[in-house]
Write a structure and sequence with these properties.
This protein is α/β, with parallel strands linked by helices and 382 residues long. It has helices at 10-22, 34-43, 72-81, 94-110, 127-136, 141-150, 205-228, 234-238, 241-262, 266-281, 289-292, 296-299, 307-315, 321-331, 339-351, 353-361, 368-381, and strands spanning 2-6, 26-31, 45-50, 57-61, 63-67, 84-87, 116-120, 151-152, 156-159, 173-175, 180-184, 198-201. The structure holds nicotinamide-adenine-dinucleotide and D-Mannitol-1-phosphate. Nicotinamide-adenine-dinucleotide (NAD) binds next to helix 1, strand 2 and helix 4. NAD(+) binds at residues 3-14.
């Protein structure tokens, strides 16, 4: 079995590549990082260490790599022969891989036209659907209808905390022991071979919303509030009791939405929150607030981890003040080397915070959630 995986970064090597390899796939990573591509190709394996007490290390084998910059035709050929294509490049990068993926699909249509699953493992609602739209935009009518007959793009939710890596070995990844990969089985081609370790569900929305609006909402809240208090890592931030209780407040707000909307058991969801806060604190990890808060414009967008649950809470007459505080803290996220942070700060300087909130969240100035964000923003500035 063959897999092509776009993005040999932290989650690509530390989770998706690992699981696919353990399931018996030969994994071909595709990346723009030439050093990582060369090393994967040369060694054909890499180590993954679990951030737990005994720090178990597994060697991921049967891997290779191609450059998405210089080897587009080889990548297309690999896609034409693969059983599965996965991505973990970042949702805003999907547009850059759509062309080569479309090339691979065209080649496959002219050849085996065997069933192909394409799964975007990004932190986004409907990531694979977004990728499909980008790929289909590059295909003509005939190729699209051919692709319809053999390719499926099931949406997915992926969960495993993998911080930035700093080791002498550029391939080594340290990951938390916990993982969850949930795939929408209703979008799979009938007769598919399940991947061990993947949880297939016929209705993904409760799973992706629970993950994004708990793990990621809590995570970015800790990052934004933590940055404001001068903490450099999530672990430092989570040692601050006041901050932790603010993060918990946020998760109680999103939890109320999730419980009401999806019928999650209240006690069970409360345990889920406890477990996530414990994962954030994992002393065996060093996870920088700058990584977790990265791309604040994406995180403030209407369909993402802050605005979406706040709007759903508003629609249901539930509380969203703590979510508004996290959004206000996101507006203050001013870190070097993050182009979205720079754009946000430039917009605040040029247009003011109110217009900036409207521009990036889509919330009109007279919307209650917008007003609440502004109140919290002014409060945080004091
Ligand atoms: N790290 C985590 O804890 C985690 C957990 C769950 C989901 N995710 C999601 O996984 C995705 C990747 O996150 P990450 O933390 O692994 O980031 P990362 O930066 O470590 O990895 C992204 C990789 O994509 C590569 N890339 C960039 N442009 C590319 C292109 N055009 N073609 C091929 N490769 C390209 C980069 O070189 C990099 O190796 C994001 O959507 C993130 O939200 C991350
Ligand atoms: O990857 P992002 O930028 O969407 O979010 C940053 C972190 O919250 C995220 O990477 C988590 O570590 C991950 O989603 C845990 O499953």
């Amino acid at each position: 079995m063959k897999a092509v995986h776009f993005g040999a970064g932290n989650i690509g090597r530390g989770f998706i590549g690992l699981l696919l390899s353990q399931a018996g796939y030969e994994v071909c990573f595709v990346d723009v990082n030439e050093a990582v591509v060369a090393e994967l190709k040369r060694r054909g394996e890499y180590p993954v260490t679990l951030a737990s007490e005994d720090r178990e290390t597994v060697t991921v084998q049967h891997v290779t790599a191609l450059s998405s910059v210089t080897q587009a035709s080889e990548v297309a050929a690999a896609i034409a022969e693969a059983d599965i294509v996965t991505t973990a490049v970042g949702v805003s990068i999907l547009k850059h891989i759509a062309g080569v993926l479309a090339g691979g699909i065209r080649l496959r249509a002219a050849g085996s036209a065997a069933p192909l699953h394409v799964i975007a493992c990004e932190n986004a609602i409907g990531g694979s659907a977004q990728l499909k739209e980008l790929v289909y935009a590059q295909l003509d009518e005939e190729s699209r209808s051919s692709a319809d007959s053999f390719a499926a793009f099931p949406n997915a939710a992926v969960d495993r905390i993998v911080p930035l890596q700093q080791h002498d070995d550029i391939l080594k990844v340290v990951v938390e022991p916990f993982y969850e990969w949930v795939v929408d089985s209703s979008q799979m081609i009938p007769g598919y071979t399940p991947i061990p370790g993947v949880h297939y569900v016929d209705h993904l929305e409760p799973y992706i919303e629970r993950k994004l609006f708990t793990v990621n909402t809590g995570h970015c809240s800790a990052a934004y509030l933590g940055e404001l208090r001068g903490y450099e890592t999530i672990q430092q931030a989570m040692a601050d009791e006041r901050l932790t209780s603010q993060v918990r407040e946020v998760l109680e707000e999103t939890g109320a939405v999730l419980i009401q909307k999806h019928g999650f058991d209240e006690a069970g969801h409360s345990k889920y929150i406890d477990k996530i806060l414990e994962r954030f604190r994992n002393p065996a990890l060093t996870d920088e607030t700058s990584r977790v808060g990265r791309s604040p414009i994406r995180k403030l967008s209407a369909n993402d981890r802050l605005v979406s649950p706040a709007l759903q809470a508003y629609d249901r007459g539930l509380r969203y003040a703590a979510l508004a505080r996290s959004m206000a803290a996101a507006l203050r996220f001013d870190v070097q080397d993050d182009p979205e942070s720079a754009e946000l700060q430039a917009s605040i300087a040029a247009n003011g915070p109110g217009a900036t909130v409207t521009r990036y969240t889509g919330l009109a100035a007279d919307h209650s959630v917008h007003r609440s964000v502004m109140t919290e923003y002014n409060e945080l500035k004091k």
